[in-house]
Fold DeoR/GlpR transcriptional regulator.
Amino acid sequence: MLTQERHEEICRIVNDKKAVTVTELVKLLGSSESTIRRDLNYLHDKGKIKKVHGGATSLINNYTTREDTVDEKALLHMEEKEKIGRYAASLIEPGELIYIDAGTTTGCLVSNIKDKDCIYVTNGISHAKLLGQMGCRVFVIPGTIRGCTEAIIGGEANDYLMRYNFTKGFFGVNGISLENGLTTPDPDEARTKTAAMSRCKQCYVLADSSKFRIVTAVTFGQPEDARIITTTLEEKQFKLKTEIVEVDQYDLYSHI
């Protein structure tokens, strides 16, 4: 198969399946892994597809208002989320006042927390439960529970957050784009994220590779408002906006 034909076939497969792994493309096209990776880099640079860790996703539909449930999200990108959570947990220092946003990637942060000599505040129901079981001092913000994300949100939550001066805050995100910033599908959840971020001395956004170049309904911040922790990122444009921590470049266990 000629190079141009292979490129066209890769684009067709990616757009049909919406997401595909390098291994799948190797099997479907009968090409070597190095060839497929080179093709994906080329097509990504040309703006034909989005290269992500271990494969590629389509750019045809990068806008969504739909949100998966917590249980559905927990099954996606599990290895990436665990790496991100482990690294993020290593940034917490004794005596800090930490805010932890609801979400599955921030949930991986919680499960990796070692420092109990901190005060934790969260709007995540499952996060609060786990932190309590771990013997941490944890406060849950008041408000309304949003069922699909298990996040506490609303005006009461936002007002409550205004009393705090957090040293660090860790946030989940549904989409990150240069044009629309940090986005999430729900307006009320977006307002709670914005309120919490405004009270943090340092904000971190925890995002697996599938979140980049995705746009959802409501913007709650800009990339430059936070340091972004991910596994690996090919898009150099994002690195011009803010600090991107690529945890695949680190020995994670050296930070614990």
Summary: The chain has two domains: 3-57, 70-255.
